[in-house]
Each structure stands twice: as structure tokens, then as C-alpha cells.
Amino acid sequence: MKTDKLILDACCGSRMFWFDKTNPDTLFVDKRYGTLTANDSSSKNGVRVIEIKPDLVADFTRLPFEDETFYMVVFDPPHMKSLGANSWMAKKYGFLTENWETDLKKGFDECMRVLKQNGTLIFKWNESEIKTSEILDLIPYKPLFGHTSGRQSKTIWMAFLKK
User: What is the structure's pLDDT at 36?
Assistant: First the structure.
């Protein structure tokens, strides 16, 4: 598949961390599509709504793009494996399958495949159930640098350079 976009968000979800959720240089991809609602007494109107509306529905383990298509790839895969399929967290963030190691390895490989030479991969991971070191042990890529954030300092952002 051809595209004129410079950036790929390989599993965009509801685009929560994007400042510009309609960035014209970015192709937003997710395997899910839809509007999710839940009752929430702490919200203004008692309902929590999340829209997952990617530009293209595709799985990050099988991206439909030619090799070396994007200058930057953002990879923020699901990070929870113990969620019930119908839980709010699973609906909001997605969840890992029992084959999560294989899926994440394939995801990294696909993200690197579609990344241009000297392109940047931005990876976001939350260590609530799986340590970052376990993820890094699955892949042959080494991050250049990263930053830990979040209320409990369990989220880490990492940058990789494709050489």
C-alpha cells in the first residue's frame, strides 16, 4: 500500500497522547474501530466516551505498507495481559493475547520494516504487568534513549534509530 504520510502511528487507539489528533503528516492505524462508552459517576455527564477511529484498520503484526515507507513510526501497543476482554481498560487500550511475546516481536519487526533507513521509532511501554527489560529481550533492537513518566513511573518512552 502506498501513502504520502511521513509518520505512522501503528496502534493509535484514541490518539490520547497526540497534541494534534488530526496531524496531517500522520497515518493513524489500529486493528479496532468504534466508539466506546461506559457509565462513570466521576465524569461531567456520567458517561465516559472514547473514540477509536483510525485512518486505516490494520494489525501492527501485518502492516500493509511497502518497506521503508515512513520517516517515523510510533509504536504504543497494548501492555496488559490479564484484563477481561470486556473490561473498560481492555476496550480503551486493547490487551495482549496469550502469544504476546510473538505479537510484540512481530510488531517491532513490522515497525522497523516500514521505517526508512535512518528513521526513528518511538516506543511507549507501561510496566504494570511486563517489565521493559522483558520486551527488550524479545527484540534485536536497542534504544538510543528513553524517559520514564506517569504517576507511578511505570511508563517509559524510548527512541530507536534504524541503521
Answer: 84
